[in-house]
């Protein structure tokens, strides 16, 4: 049984396989791997409803949230879990929800989860974004590096 854990924060991109590969290569034994995905909620957005949906204004966002959550859970189970379980380690996965206000809320959710579970490290993928995108959208990785109370390992893209 593993005595230490490592959180691997992933999104719905196959680029995050590099983070899983990094952990498997550098921390192959004695760790429990915890895959963490933060799903951004669409419920708070009024932009996704059409004028035709006047009577169903709030049902459509809830349905969309359920579909996005199911897709994220499937992605974790189909791609990330088997890869992380390849060396026989204990692997768990968690899907958290966050509001759509940018990288700050996603980063906060990751940092809060890490603070509660107290892993040996938090592993994140550095996404390749232009300076303009980083300025307007922010960076989840940067937020976690600055605000996390546990060590953060950043895997380059």
UniProtKB/TrEMBL annotation:
SUPFAM superfamilies documented for this protein: Adenine nucleotide alpha hydrolases-like
InterPro entries named in the record: Rossmann-like_a/b/a_fold, Universal_stress_UspA, UspA
Domain of life the protein comes from: Eukaryota
Sequence ranges assigned to domain UspA in this UniProt record: 4-156
Stated name of the protein: UspA domain-containing protein
Organism whose genome encodes this protein: Coccomyxa subellipsoidea
């Amino acid at each position: 049984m593993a005595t230490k854990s490592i959180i691997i924060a992933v999104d719905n991109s196959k680029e995050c396989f590099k983070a899983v590969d990094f952990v498997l290569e550098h921390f192959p034994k004695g760790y429990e791997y915890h895959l963490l995905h933060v799903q951004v909620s669409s419920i708070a957005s009024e932009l996704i409803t059409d004028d035709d949906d006047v009577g169903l204004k709030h049902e459509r966002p809830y349905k969309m949230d359920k579909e996005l959550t199911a897709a994220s859970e499937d992605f974790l189970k189909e791609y990330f879990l088997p890869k992380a379980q390849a060396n026989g380690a204990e692997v768990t996965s968690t899907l958290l929800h966050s509001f759509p206000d940018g990288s700050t809320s996603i980063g906060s959710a990751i940092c809060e989860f890490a603070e509660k579970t107290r892993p040996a490290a938090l592993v994140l993928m550095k996404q390749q974004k232009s300076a303009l995108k980083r300025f307007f959208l922010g960076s989840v990785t940067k937020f976690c590096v600055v605000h996390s109370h546990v060590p953060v390992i950043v895997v380059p893209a």
